[in-house]
Specification:
This protein has 278 residues and is an alpha/beta fold. Helix content is 43%, strand content 19%. Strands 1-2-3-4-7-8-9-12 form an 8-stranded parallel barrel, surrounded by 4 helices.
Length: 278
């Protein structure tokens, strides 16, 4: 499987025709897709997707695993994901440390209660997923807007899940910033306290300011300076890892997306010599 490295971009269907026609720009080191959006597609789109996966390494970032749900784990779905990963030679599969299903699919990412019981519940499910996938599961620290039933703080809960499940971390820098504003904590201290050995790759994205003390994680805007600064700190604290620009709607021209991808690459280049000399 090809090594994932550099600065990446999430693939949206609106991009496919242009990327197939012109090729994936050299600045894009890898691409990311939600497997749910690509496992059942028409033959033409499947051929186009194959053309793209032959040009660059891809990673998958899931939407519906629902790792923290009280309902039984959908192992049939996990097996379908494994087939998709194997078919396209994709090594990395990440998901949200949240849940999105109960009696039905909720179409949103709900916060898992920060409790010891939830740590054990999630960790057990992660181990099952990893056994089926024959790959590590990479869990993302998520944005959340309430913490029902919390007995632990977010950082303690996240680190406990990673340790007990023995899985990897998708470090979402924007989510740390969003949560720090919404819940009133120090984003820099939170980032510094994460376990470096668990970090596999990073996300960076834009958001929407609903109010002075309320940010909504939308992935629909450009990345702002405080988030870029946290990305630079992430490289200093945890090393330079592959980093993806998330942009899910309000898509600007590809040239504007490539400017942000180039910004990621610039921070990566700047951090490497500093860490080498540390």
């Amino acid at each position: 499987m090809a090594e994932v490295q550099g600065a990446g971009l999430g693939l949206r269907r609106e991009m496919v025709e242009g990327l197939v026609r012109d090729g994936i720009p050299e600045a894009i080191g890898f691409m990311e897709v939600a497997p749910e959006n690509w496992m059942r597609i028409n033959p033409r789109l499947k051929r186009q997707f194959r053309q793209l996966t032959e040009q660059r390494p891809f990673v998958c970032h899931g939407l519906s695993l629902s790792i923290g749900a009280p309902a039984p784990l959908d192992t049939d779905f996990v097996k379908q994901v494994k087939t998709f990963l194997d078919e396209h030679d994709i090594a990395l599969y990440s998901e949200h440390l949240s849940y999105c299903s109960g009696n039905a699919h909720l179409y949103d990412l709900m916060p898992i209660p920060f409790t010891e019981a939830a740590v054990h519940h999630v960790a057990q499910r992660v181990r099952v997923v990893q056994e089926i996938l024959e790959r590590p599961l990479v869990l993302e620290n998520v944005s959340y807007y309430a913490a029902p039933g919390a007995e632990l703080d977010e950082l303690t809960f996240l680190k406990a899940v990673l340790e007990e499940a023995d899985c990897q971390l998708l470090l979402d820098v924007n989510n740390i910033y969003v949560n720090s504003v919404n819940h009133g904590y120090d984003a820099s201290a939170f980032l510094r306290a994460l376990p470096s050995e668990r970090v596999r790759y990073l996300h960076v994205a834009g958001h929407y300011n609903e109010a002075e003390d309320l940010i909504v994680d939308t992935h629909g805007a450009a990345v702002i300076d405080p988030v870029w600064q946290l990305l630079a700190q992430a490289y200093e604290d945890h090393g330079v890892h592959p980093t993806l620009l998330e942009r899910d709607f309000n898509l600007p021209p590809m040239s504007e997306l490539l400017e942000e991808v180039a910004t990621i690459a610039g921070y990566q280049r700047a951090a490497e010599p500093r860490r080498a000399s540390a």
